[in-house]
Structures are given as structure tokens and as C-alpha cells.
């Protein structure tokens, strides 16, 4: 039991100390899109933020009125204003808010998504290494759990 427990604890401590997140700003990096497409130029990086424990993704989207420049076959699409991905020492929440400004008639949607596993601020919720770690942890702890039950 102690070997299994300490193995899991050791892996968790290492993962906490070496958090890697996607870090980009769509104003400066053209491949920092709403959904990451596996572009090799955009890879998770080690966090240099003090006490970083979270990866964050923010989005700003607006939906304007119909206009010939943004209408395609009578369907109006929203436009993404900006995406940022970064490391944070604080949990910034998981929510979207609708904002309007008095100087124009557009409605903006601003969202923030916070997560605490490695490279979790891409578009994917679960990545293969996270699933592998979960399955490995569960399979290692099942014999220990069985010993407590009997």
C-alpha cells in the first residue's frame, strides 16, 4: 500500500511543481485560435508565473447586426475579438458574461475558463496524458482499496 500511495503522491507533486500551459495572445500569434489545431508552433510552455497552479483561456466575441460584409448565405456569424491563454496563481473562474457599450449596438461575450492540469487550456477537455494518468492511478489503487474492503 505505501509504495502505491507514495508513487501517486510523488507524481502529483511533480505535476504541481512543473505546470505547463498554452501561452499565447491572438493579437501577437496568428495560431492562437478559439480551438487549437495541433499547430507545432503553439505548444505548452513551462509556467514562469509565481506559484502558478492554473491554466487560463479567455475569449472575447461579438455578434454584430447583419451587414453585407459579415453575412454569408443569410446567416450571421459572430466574430472572435481575441483569445489569450496564460498561467495564473489564482482560479479566475469559469463563466461567460454579455457586455454592451453605450457607443455602439454590438453585444460582446467575454469568457474565462480556468483549469488545473497540464496543458488543459486548449480547446480539448481531456487530453490523452490526463486519461492515461487517471487510468494508471486507479489501476494502482484498486488492490489497495480491495484490501480495505475485505
UniProtKB/TrEMBL annotation:
Secretion signal, residue range per the UniProt entry: 1-18
UniProt keyword Signal, yes or no: yes
Xref: InterPro entries: QVR-like (IPR031424), Sleep_regulator (IPR050975)
Keywords per UniProt: Glycoprotein, Signal
One Pfam family here: QVR
GO biological process: regulation of synaptic transmission, cholinergic; sleep
Matches recorded under PANTHER family: ATILLA, ISOFORM B-RELATED-RELATED, BOUDIN-RELATED
Protein name: Protein sleepless
Organism: Clonorchis sinensis (Chinese liver fluke)
Amino acid at each position: 500500500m505505501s509504495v502505491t500511495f507514495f508513487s501517486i503522491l510523488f507524481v502529483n507533486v511533480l505535476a504541481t511543481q512543473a505546470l505547463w500551459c498554452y501561452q499565447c495572445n491572438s493579437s501577437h500569434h496568428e495560431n492562437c485560435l478559439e480551438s487549437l489545431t495541433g499547430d507545432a508552433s503553439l505548444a505548452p510552455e513551462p509556467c514562469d508565473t509565481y506559484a502558478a497552479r492554473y491554466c487560463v483561456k479567455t475569449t472575447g466575441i461579438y455578434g454584430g447586426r447583419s451587414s453585407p460584409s459579415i453575412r454569408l448565405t443569410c446567416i450571421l456569424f459572430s466574430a472572435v475579438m481575441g483569445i489569450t491563454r496564460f498561467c495564473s496563481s489564482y482560479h479566475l473562474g469559469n463563466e461567460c458574461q454579455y457586455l454592451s457599450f453605450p457607443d455602439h449596438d454590438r453585444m460582446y461575450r467575454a469568457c474565462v475558463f480556468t483549469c488545473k492540469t497540464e496543458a488543459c487550456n486548449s480547446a480539448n477537455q481531456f487530453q490523452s496524458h490526463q486519461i492515461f494518468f487517471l487510468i494508471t492511478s486507479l489501476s494502482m489503487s484498486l488492490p489497495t482499496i480491495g484490501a480495505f474492503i475485505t
